[in-house]
Amino acid sequence: MNEVAIVGIGMHPFGRHEGVTGMEQGAIAAREACRDAGIGWKDLGFAVGGSMAAGAPDQMVSMMGLTGLQFVNVVNGCATGGTALSTAYNMIMAGIQDIGIAVGFDKHPRGAFASDRPVHPVDGGADWYGGSGMAINPQFFAMKINRYMQKHQISHRTLARVAAKATRNGSMNPMAWRKQAFTEDEILQSRMLAYPLTQYMFCSPGEGGVAMVLCRADQAHKYTSKPIYLKAAVMRSRRYGSFEVKASYLSNDECDGPTMDASKAAFEFAGIGPEDVDVAQLQDTESGAEIMHMAENGFCEDGEQEWMLERGETEIDGRFPVNTDGGCIANGEPIGASGLRQVYENVLQLRGGAGERQVPGNPKVAYTHVYGAPGISGVTILST
Amino acid sequence: MGQQVSINEFVLDISGDEPRLMGGRCKDCGHHTFPLLSGCAHCAGANVESVPLSSRGTLWAWTVQGFPPKDPPYLGENDPENFQPFGVGYVELPELKVEARLTESQPEHLRDGMEMQLTVEPLYADDDGNEVVTFAFAPVE
């Protein structure tokens, strides 16, 4: 069977960049990824691009070079970057292509993500769902963690610990948007946006670009002395009975969500277990999500997060470091780039190149998880 | 003189004495959806019908919308000066859990498992002076 290696990575800083289009940020990241792999754009057999709000990614060829390569555009809500990577992975695994690039970028306006199209399109009548004040992403995350906190005894302080860790890690990341570390009390005292989540517990829509060059593993040493192997890249959508964002109803027959489904499939495919993972980047659109995703991805039991956070186990020097680059909370969320940012950070960590925020002890296995509307999860497992 | 009208009769019927939510039911497997969809999300068939849903249930999950939603799509008051936070939750009915506004917005008065009853809430006045209402659930005293 084929294997896939990541041989080059590139990133445009996340944040707000007046006068630079989202696509230009993607192009800067793509050039950097090619340079890191020691190749040129003309050496790529294919590209997969993801963007929600910054234009059709394949238009990038006009600034990168009209080489005739196959270019696939993808969109999957907040999981768009993850989809770009898994699509590229699948093309190499299938033996159709030897080397290509996954690129993601975006540029969103300020404020919470809003539906520009009705979740339930109506012919002639009012958009009753969004019109009534629902279909707002933060509501879902707030309801999910609020229920989880009551069921599994998670405290408000633990929510603040997640956000404090994110901003602390972000303050050590030159690519991050938010570089100011907040204290737990500052986070708890910030404005209540969607109970129990306060303003500083949320990420914001932002801007940025990430790209990575992938190739057949048996050719990786042509491009780099430190290939990172992509052992699994799995996407799953929701099943009937799961509890997902922008759902106007839920079934009374409950079942596991797409995160648990994708995680189990990825671990099984890679032949690696949660206990083998040395560093993880888990979707943290707000601090409640990181807490729940720790359990949904198999890294702890429900409720254990309370004392894991209290003991600092998910800190960079802890037993199980989570969101070492500051996650979505410190980096913001340019949808097309966000899932690739997680993989970029893990490649840095596995290469030993994460600088001030390097996880000690030469990490060998790294994990990413991204979640998107309307109930999509993407998981990757990387190893040295 | 204006009167009360439903935000959309497809999901909220206020023509009778009591408001009713309208959902979908699969004639093959018996599972429900809200709203009525063109197919069944459970068995993937297409033999579905419109049915009224129960009006009483229990609160399953909740939050409070603390910032003004964007317009569009929001049709209610979203001027930051006048915006009032409102509760949002899933209410578990015998058929399914439905997402709805809650008439209660104080966290200390909301808890999972409390009994809830369907009602309507005014959202805005239309050009003809009618009061447009949407569905909401109120705690049962």
Features:
heterodimer, A: 384 residues, alpha/beta, nine-stranded mixed beta sheet, 12 strands, B: 141 residues, mainly beta, four-stranded antiparallel beta sheet, globular
Give a quick rundown of the structure.
The complex is a heterodimer of chains A (384) and B (141). Chain A is of the alpha/beta class and 384 residues long. Chain A has helices at 22-37, 61-64, 80-93, 128-131, 137-152, 156-170, 184-189, 258-270, 287-296, 305-310, 327-331, 335-351; strands spanning 4-15, 46-50, 70-74, 99-107, 192-194, 197-198, 207-216, 228-237, 249-250, 279-282, 365-372, 376-383.
One letter per element, helices H and strands E, the order of chain A comes to EHEHEHEHHHHEEEEEHEHHHHEE
The major beta sheet of chain B can be summarized as: 5 strands, mixed, barrel
Question: Could you tell me the strand content of chain A as a percent range?
Answer: 15-25%
What's the number of structural domains of chain A? 1
Q: Cα-atom Rg of chain A, whole angstroms?
A: 20 Å
The CATH class designation of chain A is: Alpha Beta
> How do the strands line up in the largest sheet of chain A?
3-2-4-7-1-8-12-11-10
Number of domains of chain B: 1
Strand content of chain B: 35-45%
Count every helix of chain B, treating DSSP H or I runs of 4 or more residues as helices: 0
Distance, first to last CA of chain A: 18 Å
Indicate the multimeric state: heterodimer
By secondary-structure content and strand pairing, the structural class of chain A works out as: alpha/beta
Identify the CATH architecture of chain A: 3-Layer(aba) Sandwich
Main sheet of chain A? 9 strands, mixed
Secondary structure: number of strands of chain B: 10
Can you count the beta strands of chain A?
A: 12
Q: Report the uncertain regions of chain A.
A: none
Q: Which runs of chain B of at least 5 residues are low in confidence (pLDDT < 50)?
A: none
Q: H/E series of chain B, N to C? A: EEEEEEEEEE
